[in-house]
Design brief:
Blueprint (H helix, E strand, L loop, with lengths): L1 H25 L8 H15 L4 E6 L2 E6 L10 H5 L3 H13 L2 H9 L4 E3 L2 H4 L14 H13 L2 H4 L2 E3 L4 E5 L2 E10 L2 H7 L4 E7 L7 E10 L11 H8 L4 E2 L3 E4 L5 E12 L3 E11 L6 E5 L13 H14 L3 H7 L4 E3 L4 E5 L2 E10 L5 E2 L1 E6 L5 E4 L3 E2 L1 H11 L6 E2 L3 E5 L2 E9 L5 E8 L7 E4 L2 H14 L13 E4 L2 E7 L2 E10 L2 E8 L14 E8 L5 E8 L4
Length: 551
């Protein structure tokens, strides 16, 4: 009798070790509304009934296993017990069915509310775009890899994460990617040092990358192992939460954090998963805090993933008329296009994507903005070309160069709804800027080596088409005293910033040498007369013309 007890204790200790290792690797949420929990439960039932299919004999060499000889005189059959493992799978399948759109179409459609807004009000007229990440992730990755390659002390030990996250850093759009350990052995060799820094890319203006070192290195990382693995640390801290993908961000002081959305089904048992909380995790210390939606700090940028945001709108757009209508009639059904861009408004990051009818063509019936922190939606009924139609038009304009267009964003340029995008060469390097009129996308297309050149060309086309008065947005000639001259390079072009003073405040007037070579001759201490246009950056004006004389 003692030997029987011992052999089953040994067997179940081994099975318990296997179960722990399975959990340690797969990390399912212990939550009845998580599909992975039921799969893991079925696995546990199966392995814990497995000993009943063998006769375990204890001898001097250990435990000997013989098949086809059941204990307890055969009264308990493994085949019968194994059916118990199917119960969680059955529950999972039934839960998925009763939570599907087939039975809950309008509930899915009601997960979000969409506010219809006025394009001209939310997006005032502009002549200079600095709040939109025009560079896509693929180009940012190339710049990041190049920057890491220049850091000899890190290039052989670390790699740059492929996940470049869009953030609003001090009211400027940036893409950030943290360094990761190259492999297990590099983690062993460097784990005492931690992850030293991250890459920040400017995707809107300068299109350059810089390496920034952390004040304190990161202890927890996605590429770390065992207890220092980021996902494992989060799971053991929040065993019941349905966790989304952790996203690396820095606050306005440059302190690193991971923002982790927590999901909860809104329909049935498993259906319409939506973010209801977010964890702010400090990867330096391992400390974290969880916030309800609506209480998340303003500096946090990405809580709702762009794919989740567009999926929720598609539920709203296609299922409001019921499931059958979404499949057969399609009356009133609309959906987003297959990609999205980013822009910053009011210190928040927003996703931009067009909205088209389910039937699909080259035209959009509007577009939506989704707040990546709060999950709010705004719909703008702007009719015109789809993003991909505009991209094709832009590529056709420079077809001899074979440049590829990045996904565009929408701006209000001189009162016209306009797509703005960058054009890349085969190596992913940004070469040109392009503007495409949403309504007349086949005829009003302007390109330039810089954004300023493209805007100027676009303005001239609008004037020729009679859509813009020639003197629009131009100031009267104004006399300024140049206090100092600062020179920088933007998009490969030299730009001069001339410091002046207005009402006791410092302001800057800028002029690109590509637009006017005479910019070289303006010196500090000189008085000049300028006409200018306002930009989206307070206190910075774009010079349209200048002279030493008023007339």
């Amino acid at each position: 009798m003692n030997k029987k007890i011992i052999k089953y204790v040994v067997a179940y200790l081994a099975i318990t070790l296997i179960a722990f290792l399975a959990y340690y690797i797969t990390l399912p949420a212990i939550n009845l509304q998580n599909e992975g929990f039921w799969v893991f439960l079925a696995f546990l039932i199966f392995i814990y009934t497995l000993p009943f299919s063998f006769n375990l004999t204890l001898n001097s060499k250990g435990v000997k296993i013989k098949k086809n000889s059941l204990p307890f005189n055969g009264r308990v059959k493994f085949k019968k017990l194994s059916f118990i493992a199917l119960a969680p799978i059955a529950i999972l399948i039934i839960g998925l069915i009763i939570s599907s759109t087939l039975f809950n179409a309008r509930a899915y459609a009601s997960v979000i509310t969409v506010e219809e807004s006025v394009f001209e009000v939310d997006m005032p007229k502009t002549t200079n775009v600095t709040n939109i990440a025009l560079m896509d992730t693929a180009s940012a990755q190339k710049l990041g890899d190049k920057k890491l390659g220049s850091l000899e002390e890190f290039v052989s030990q670390y790699t740059v994460s492929e996940q470049y996250n869009q953030i609003n850093f001090n009211n400027t759009p940036k893409k950030v990617a943290v360094l990761e350990y190259e492999d297990f052995f590099k983690w062993i060799g460097n784990k005492n040092k931690g992850v030293p820094g991250y890459i920040m890319v400017d995707p809107a203006v300068s299109n350059d990358a810089q390496y920034i070192e952390f004040k304190s290195p990161l202890k927890y990382a996605k590429s770390a192992f065992f207890g220092e693995n980021l996902n494992r640390k989060l799971r053991f801290s929040y065993p019941t939460k349905i966790l989304g993908e952790p996203r690396f961000e820095v606050d306005d002081n440059g302190n690193p954090f991971y923002i982790v959305p927590c999901f909860k089904p809104r329909v049935g048992v498993f259906g319409a998963k939506d973010v209801n909380e977010a964890i702010i995790f400090n990867p330096c210390t391992g400390e974290s805090e969880i916030y309800a939606i609506g209480e998340i700090p303003q500096w946090v940028d990405i809580v709702y993933d762009g794919d989740v945001a567009t999926k929720k709108y598609n539920w709203h757009g296609t299922l409001s008329g019921g499931f059958l209508n979404s499949v057969i009639g399609n009356k009133g059904c609309k959906q987003t296009t297959d990609d999205y861009g980013y822009l910053t408004l009011n210190d928040d990051v927003w996703y931009f994507t067009g909205v088209t009818s389910v039937s699909g063509d080259e035209s959009n019936i509007g577009f939506i903005l989704t707040n990546a922190r709060t999950g709010d939606y705004k719909y703008y009924p702007v009719i015109g070309a789809s993003e991909h139609a505009a991209m094709e038009a832009a590529e056709g304009e420079v077809q001899n160069m074979r440049y590829e267009a990045a996904f565009p964003a929408l701006v209000n340029l001189y009162g016209e709804a306009t797509y703005i995008m960058v054009l890349k060469d085969s190596s992913g390097i940004v070469k040109m800027h392009c503007l495409v009129n949403v309504e007349d996308y086949s005829n009003i297309i302007a390109t330039g080596n810089t954004q300023e050149e493209a805007v100027e060309a676009y303005k001239e086309m609008l004037i020729k088409k009679g859509l813009l008065d020639e003197s629009v947005n131009l100031s009267e000639k104004k006399e300024i005293t140049v206090l100092s001259v600062k020179e920088t390079v933007i998009d490969g072009n030299t730009v001069f910033f001339y410091e002046a003073e207005e009402n006791g405040n410092k302001v800057y007037y800028k002029l690109s040498i590509a637009k006017d070579e005479s910019a070289l001759f303006i010196k500090a201490g000189e008085k000049i007369f300028v006409t200018y246009e306002e930009t989206q950056n307070t206190g910075i004006y774009l010079i349209t013309s200048w002279s030493y004389e008023k007339d």
